[in-house]
Amino acid sequence: MLEPASLLKPGLDAKELREPFAGETYASGRASLREATLNLKAGDLVEVRSAAEIMSSLDAEGKLDGLPFMPEMLAFCGRCLRVSRRADNTCARGQPRRIEATVHLAELRCDGSAHRGCEAACLLMWKEAWLRRVAVSADDGADPAVANGVADAAYRRLSEIAQQPNDALMCQATELHSASCAAPVGSPPAYFAGLARDVASRRRSFGDLRKLITYFKGKAIMYAFMLWARAPWNADRYRKTPAAPLDLRAGELVRVRGIFEIVRTLDRNGCNRGMEFKPEMFQFCGRKYPVIYNMQRRIDERSGELKGFRSPCIVLESVYCEGQRSFCQRSNYHYWREIWLSRV
Description:
The protein has helices at about 15-20, 25-35, 50-55, 145-160, 170-180, 190-200, 205-230, 260-265, and strands spanning about 45-50, 65, 65-70, 80-85, 90, 95-100, 100-105, 125, 130-135, 180, 255, 270, 275, 290-295, 295-300, 305-310, 315, 340-344. The chain is α+β, with helices and mostly antiparallel strands. The chain has a five-stranded antiparallel beta sheet with strand order 8-7-4-1-9, with no helix packed on it. The protein has a four-stranded antiparallel beta sheet with strand order 17-14-11-18, with no helix packed on it. Strands 5-6-10 form a three-stranded antiparallel beta sheet, covered by helices on one side. A hairpin with a 6-residue loop joins strand 15 (about 295-300) and strand 16 (about 305-310).
């Protein structure tokens, strides 16, 4: 991310970017960039456009087609990166969504530096208009000092936009619902018929089918547990949930406890101290993973508020949602209570 000291470099002042943002100076630029659909695929090599080009594509709210370009993304301007996956299938507020002409690059995640230290580490989303194929890019001879000045001014401007009224914050996660449309959901037979067609046409793999089966197995286990927990003879049980503090640190190796060990720690809503254990998480039971960090704060996607955690919230390396239900590509990290883990 941009170093704080870089904001002190001489260059364009943020005021010089405000008029193009709100006015018509770059109207033709916005139109041309929006038309630059690249139809990118996983593995394609692209270059992130310059800060000046990207800023010219944004509206007064710092968005293109409803999706914000965040200050944390400016550090990647001018870099050549590979497309890791398309972002067509996504989710927002727990519902499947569709978004057009958007990709993820090289598994780049937001570091929250311009959003008060949010630790959600969401995958960054890139509109194709903010990229160009490397094969057709050329060095335009731009002065590095001028480019740095534009990037610094853009960082200040986008950081101002991210600070919303009532102490809320704006980021791609909070705006994804309005920047996307509802994904069509058919009957189960139609859903599986469509999945079979996708596998046959190699748009999806048998690995995706395996993920879906794993999800439904976890769903069945959670459904059976909640029926049992809400049975009349369990009226006084499954109301309070236990805790087992481990004081885990980054880098420690832990083992995810077994299915039935975890189920015994849940309440009748499938939660431990307010944190849901999701069906997608059963596939990690019994496996070992390093701890990345104990999350302290994250932005609430619905309200934009930066919220803290009352109990430890552990994030494990390479343990994220694989989009079993809707093939969502966001890959949000799963959150773990310490009682669901044991030290190795």
